[in-house]
């Protein structure tokens, strides 16, 4: 029951944030976004406790859950920083870069978590991630994205997100892991959300609904990643 309540509460708060962000990006919208993001951190801890209650916690699985929760907490920090860029316009670029850096660190922890379950998956993930990065490049070009001096950082970040998703996908097949397949679904949502965010932030061909869709995808990503703990063997 707690699991369902946490997911529902987060979905409601995320919806309220999206509605508020269309009206005005202010401290209230920052509050809503931060609380919604805190929900998936709590969800990660709750899923870990549920797993421990019914299973013996081996070292790889303990490390997986610890790395995953670290990633969720860095996602919370990234959400807060990115939300603040609309409130303090003078520090917009600083908050954008630091928020992106927090997410990047979170993705590194996610990759480390995956490698605890499927240590050899990265060999197969590299070519998949490179192909996906090429597709992301053509998408951003088609949407007339102009990121200026921070473009190289954006390429590295998007590459990291795609590599994370590719590691989860290949790891799911190599280890026949339901947990990593759930992680892959979350990683796919993450990749789609972040590519849409790039277009929203630096592109010209934008849609008024892009902001809502990318936040829904992002919330789904963090939820799927958090609950992947429950699918561990």
Can you describe this structure in just a few lines?
With 233 residues, the chain is mainly alpha-helical. The protein is built from eight helices and no strands.
Task: Describe the structure in your own words.
The mean pLDDT is 90. The protein has helices at 2-23, 27-54, 59-84, 92-117, 121-142, 151-174, 178-202, 210-227. α1 packs antiparallel against α2 and α3 runs antiparallel to α4. The chain contains eight helices and no strands. It is mainly α. The chain is globular and about 50 Å long. The chain is 82% helix and 0% strand.
**Can you summarize the main beta sheet?**
none
User: Which percent band covers the strand fraction?
Assistant: under 5%
Radius of gyration based on Cα positions: 17 Å
- Unreliable residue runs: none
The N- and C-terminal alpha carbons lie at a distance of 22 Å
Helix content: over 70%
Top keywords for this entry?
233 residues, mainly alpha, 82% helix
Please give the structural blueprint.
Blueprint: H1 2-23, H2 27-54, H3 59-84, H4 92-117, H5 121-142, H6 151-174, H7 178-202, H8 210-227
Helix pairs in contact: 1-2, 1-8, 2-3, 2-8, 3-4, 4-6, 5-6, 6-7, 7-8
């Amino acid at each position: 029951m707690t699991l369902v309540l946490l997911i529902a509460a987060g979905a409601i708060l995320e919806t309220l944030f999206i509605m508020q962000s269309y009206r005005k990006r202010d401290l209230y919208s920052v509050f809503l976004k931060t609380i919604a993001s805190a929900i998936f951190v709590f969800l990660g801890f709750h899923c870990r406790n549920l797993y421990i209650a019914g299973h013996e916690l081996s070292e790889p699985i303990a490390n997986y859950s610890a790395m995953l929760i670290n990633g969720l907490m860095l996602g919370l920090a990234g959400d807060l920083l990115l939300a603040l860029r609309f409130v303090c316009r003078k520090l917009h670029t600083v908050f954008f870069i630091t928020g992106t850096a927090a997410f990047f660190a979170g993705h590194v922890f996610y990759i480390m978590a995956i490698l605890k379950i499927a240590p050899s998956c990265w060999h197969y993930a590299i070519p998949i991630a490179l192909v996906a990065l090429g597709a992301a490049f053509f998408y951003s070009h088609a949407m007339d994205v102009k990121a200026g001096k921070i473009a190289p950082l954006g390429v590295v970040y998007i590459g990291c997100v795609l590599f994370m998703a590719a590691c989860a996908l290949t790891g799911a097949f190599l280890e026949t892991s339901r947990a990593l397949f759930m992680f892959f679904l979350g990683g796919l949502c993450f990749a789609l959300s972040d590519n849409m965010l790039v277009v929203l932030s630096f592109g010209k061909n934008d849609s008024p609904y892009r902001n809502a869709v990318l936040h829904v995808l992002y919330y789904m990503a963090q939820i799927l990643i958090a609950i992947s703990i429950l699918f561990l063997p």
